[in-house]
From TrEMBL:
GO molecular function: oxidoreductase activity
Protein's organism: Nocardiopsis mangrovi
Domain NADPH-dependent reductive aminase-like C-terminal residue range list: 160-285
Protein name: NAD(P)-dependent oxidoreductase
Domain of life per record: Bacteria
């Protein structure tokens, strides 16, 4: 039958993880610092552990999702000596350095550690299209893949434990840039009385084209050559001028397009005016 799993941390996210495991029939043990948060899960069939140590002892796979790195260590450090051979999948958000630190701590205690990043919010947990990113030993991922698949779409990235956190930060940066670009555009058309619900379906379709540009540009970046045969930096500097002008006329904040224009101008000044937009990465990479 489905693998027994323990979940440490029953905040909004940990509770969603435990619920998804219960939905897929995994015998699930839960622990939370504030005990009453286990109650709704116990009503759905979970077993409540009195201590993190009891939760760790109950299952070969322990999934932790607490506030931060310090909270993880506060919960599990006292039981490290009992955890040899246990798989610890840490879905707590943290920095790449913290993931490496936890991996070294785990290795020192014979714990099979994977670091993970959850690329959704609690309502998305359990959906097969929501990505969960993992890094650490491949064998640990493979051994527990069926249980991890109860949470979402498990994606193994690399043996370096830092990689999942690094992708998490990079992908959130993409999300904030895209969302803020969409909000800026929505404010711009909104100034001419276009509703957000009218503009957004067009914006969503546009993202498909933008994803295509990313796919075209990725090999250019790996090759360090940016043929401007689709649209040049020079052409796009002119185009962003129209955005800035239209926003200015409507009293819309122009800080975001200002940052984007400045990056393109620095790429142009570095000799990339005739190259594709991917050449802006040479500016972002900074001084060598
Ligand atoms: P919540 O604030 O809802 O839950 C925080 C959890 O951490 C609670 O279980 C809390 O216990 C526990 N905790 C805090 N400090 C300690 C401590 N010192 N010792 C033991 N337990 C502690 O946050 P979320 O559930 O939303 O987030 C949890 C993690 O998941 C975070 O790292 C977050 O970045 C990550 N995440 C969240 C997403 C989301 O959409 N919510 C998306 C992707 C990642 P108590 O109940 O006792 O306070």
């Amino acid at each position: 039958g489905p693998e027994a799993v323990s979940v440490i941390g029953l905040g909004a996210m940990g509770s969603a993880l435990a619920a998804a495991l219960l939905d897929r029939g995994h015998p699930t043990t839960v622990w939370n610092r504030t005990a009453h948060k286990a109650r709704p899960l116990v009503e759905r069939g979970a077993r409540a552990a009195a201590t993190p140590g009891d939760a760790i002892a109950a299952s070969p796979l322990v999934i932790a999702c607490v506030l931060d790195h310090a909270a993880l260590h506060a919960a599990v450090d006292p039981y490290a000596g009992t955890m040899a051979g246990t798989a610890l999948v840490d879905l707590t958000s943290g920095s790449p350095g913290q993931a490496r630190e936890t991996a070294a701590w785990a290795a020192g205690h014979g714990i099979d550690h994977l670091d993970g990043a959850i690329m959704t919010t609690p309502p998305g947990v359990g959906r097969p299209d929501m990505m969960f990113l993992y890094s650490g030993p491949r064998a640990v991922f493979d051994a527990h893949r069926p249980a991890l698949a109860a949470l979402g779409d498990p994606r193994y990235l690399s043996a370096d434990p830092a990689t999942a956190s690094l992708y998490d930060s990079a992908l959130l940066g993409l999300m904030w840039s895209a969302l803020t670009g969409w909000l800026h555009g929505t404010a711009l058309v909104g100034a001419d009385a276009v509703a957000a619900t009218e503009f957004t379906p067009v914006a969503v379709d546009w993202l498909t084209a933008v994803a295509g540009f990313m796919t075209t540009y990725a090999p250019q970046i790996d090759a360090g050559r940016y043929p401007g045969d689709d649209a040049t930096v020079d052409v796009q500097i002119a185009a962003i001028g129209h955005l800035i002008h239209a926003a200015e006329e409507r009293g819309i904040d122009n800080a975001l397009p200002g940052v984007l224009k400045s990056a393109m101008e620095r790429a142009r000044d570095a000799g990339h005016g005739g190259d594709s937009h991917a050449s802006v990465i040479e500016v972002l990479k900074g001084a060598k």
